[in-house]
From TrEMBL:
SUPFAM superfamilies: MetI-like (SSF161098). Pfam families: BPD_transp_1 (PF00528), BPD_transp_1_N (PF19300). Keywords: Cell membrane, Membrane, Transmembrane, Transmembrane helix, Transport. PROSITE patterns: ABC_TM1. This is Peptide/nickel transport system permease protein. InterPro entries: BPD_transp_1_N (IPR045621), MetI-like (IPR000515), MetI-like_sf (IPR035906). CDD domains: TM_PBP2. PANTHER family: DIPEPTIDE TRANSPORT SYSTEM PERMEASE PROTEIN DPPB-RELATED. Belongs to the binding-protein-dependent transport system permease family. Residues 95-304 form the ABC transmembrane type-1 domain. The keyword NAD does not apply.
Length: 313
């Protein structure tokens, strides 16, 4: 167990370093000059040179990377070109919005999909199994933006049950915040349920064919006891890994849903910053999202031995 944990921790550090190099290199390949964006095309050359020097852009690329990485490790992601705000507090503020939506959506999707997938596997090739598989396949085929637009049209415009656009923080009005969250959360739940159902079903079918399940049945245990007491733990291990991947992906890739529902989350901030060519914010968002993705998957790996007793080395 200890060696397993140390291996995962050791892999996280070089992964984050590689991600930092990629993010830094991608931003440097974008056409345009951040100094010109900050001061304008008609700025005085001496002012341009002074700002370039203060930002460290007059240094060689390797030195720029070392300086930027050192600042990022200390929590200084720079300042937004558009607003002048510090980048890290801006990212954390938007991340709280995205994290709330994603955590609720993934939690609800898992509560629905894992039992559904296991029951479908238990009744393999039955009408129930076919219905669950067909539903999961249908949900997998729906683009998130299209489903979100359908919800806006039906529940927002036609029925007028829910607000169409906007967002209210929970600290201001919890009731209004819940109303604004229903459609984004429902969109993500429906999309991700299909993925988790298929994984839970496949892993359960594999586990139900193992010898210890046959032995449990031979002892006279009921099918429900075999499924939930003996098969669940081993069957849930691969699904747990998938849930971690989904969680990391959504935290970094929720931009589509946030754009459809005009939610001021991290994904929307990244999209707006790309359009505004706000390089410090884009760079900070990419590094932050990559870091969150690595940390989430590290957390999943660290908990994996709880679900799979074979991981003990």
């Amino acid at each position: 167990m200890v060696r397993f944990l140390l291996q995962r921790l050791g892999m996280a550090v070089p992964t984050l370093l590689i991600v930092a190099v990629i993010v830094f290199g991608m931003i440097r390949l974008i056409p345009g000059d951040p100094v010109t964006l900050m001061l304008g095309d008609m700025a005085d050359p001496s002012s341009v040179a002074d700002l370039r020097r203060s930002l460290g852009l007059d240094q060689p690329i390797p030195l720029q990377f070392v300086y930027w990485l050192g600042q990022a490790l200390s929590g200084d992601f720079g300042h937004s070109i558009s607003t002048g705000q510090a980048v890290l507090p801006l990212i954390l503020d938007r991340f709280a919005v995205s994290a709330t939506i994603v955590l609720v959506a993934v939690g609800l999707a898992s509560l629905v999909a894992v039992p559904a997938g296991m029951i479908a596997a238990w009744r393999q090739d039955s009408a129930l199994d076919l219905a669950v598989v067909a539903s999961a396949t249908f949900l997998l085929s729906i683009p998130s933006f299209w489903l979100g637009l359908l919800m806006l049209l039906l529940f927002g415009l036609k029925l007028q049950w829910l607000p169409v656009i906007g967002y209210t923080p929970f600290g201001e009005d919890a009731g209004a915040a819940l109303l604004y969250m229903i459609m984004p959360v429902a969109t993500l739940v429906l999309i991700e349920t299909g993925v988790v159902v298929r994984m839970a079903r496949a892993s359960t079918i594999e586990v139900m064919r193992l010898e210890y399940i046959t032995h449990a049945r031979a002892k006279g245990l009921s099918e429900s006891a075999v499924l939930w007491r003996h098969a669940f733990r081993n069957a849930f291990a691969p699904t747990w890994t998938l849930i971690g991947l989904i969680l990391g992906n959504l935290l970094g890739g929720i931009a589509v849903v946030e754009t459809v529902f005009t939610i001021p989350g991290l994904g929307r901030l990244l999209v707006d910053s790309i359009y505004a060519r706000d390089y410090p914010v884009v760079q900070g968002c990419l590094l932050f999202v990559a870091g969150i993705y690595v940390l989430v998957n590290l957390f999943v790996d660290l908990l994996y031995p709880l679900f799979d007793p074979r991981v003990t080395a």
